[in-house]
Write a structure and sequence with these properties.
Layout: H1 7-25, H2 32-39, H3 43-49, H4 53-76, H5 83-93, H6 116-143, H7 152-166, H8 176-194, H9 213-220
Helix pairs in contact: 1-2, 1-4, 4-5, 4-6, 5-6, 6-7, 7-8
């Protein structure tokens, strides 16, 4: 018996299958035939929802990013959370590499060489979407006297571009010690960029684990 599904349900089913296959075989290693076989649909049904495999990838990235960015936006709008804590929580919510169940398949495999195109598209979406969320919090911090900068959006754009490049697992080879030194320098320079008090953003170290705390104390002596 032929199973007819609602358009949105069928679309999500295709995306779920594609995400799993991209994770297992890479984008280039997955064919539309693989997706058809996994979902159990005819080629015409696939092309009714998506024009190409690239279109499926774009939709999958958009769906995953929308879920993550929605969670980050909710945190950003919660005025009951102090400004600096909110920045930390937003960035942690945006940690797409850990993600939740909705991001498995595509995001946990995004750093594989065979998924370089997906990686690039995710990075582009993050650079476009994250600075406005963070800039809104920075603007609150300016009003509260925590920060002092006429460029909240531009500052956050610089921060996001650097963070998604230097702290990306694929872009720069670093030892753990080199990584921690870069993190310390990054936080110190973000404080200067935002006109914040020295040491006021060191709680951001929580995002990277506590390994740098001893180094923070040592460098402050």
């Amino acid at each position: 018996m032929r199973v007819v599904k609602e358009a949105e349900a069928r679309r999500n089913e295709i995306l779920d299958a594609a995400g799993e296959l991209f994770g297992q075989k890479g984008f280039d290693g997955t064919s539309t035939g693989d997706i058809l076989g996994k979902v159990g649909i005819a080629r015409g049904t696939l092309y009714y929802h998506f024009k190409s495999k690239e279109d499926i990838m774009d939709a999958l990235i958009e769906r995953t990013n929308a879920t993550i960015l929605h969670a980050a936006q909710q945190v950003a709008e919660d005025k009951s959370i102090p400004v600096i804590d909110r920045i930390l929580r937003v960035v942690m919510a945006l940690n797409i590499s850990s993600g939740d169940g909705s991001s498995t398949g595509i995001m946990e495999h995004i750093h594989k060489p065979q998924n370089a195109l997906m990686h690039q598209k995710v990075q582009k979406a993050v650079i476009r979407s994250v600075p406005p969320i963070l800039a809104s919090i920075i603007s609150e911090g300016i009003e509260q006297g925590i920060f002092s900068t006429p460029y909240p959006y531009e500052c956050m754009e610089m921060v996001v571009v650097y963070a998604t490049t230097i702290f990306d697992n694929d872009m720069v080879d670093m030892t753990e010690e080199e990584r921690m030194l870069r993190i310390l320098a990054f936080i110190a320079n973000v404080e200067r960029l935002l006109g914040a008090a020295g040491g006021s953003l060191m709680s951001v170290m929580q995002m990277f684990g506590g390994a740098g705390e001893a180094n923070v104390e040592h460098r402050d002596e």
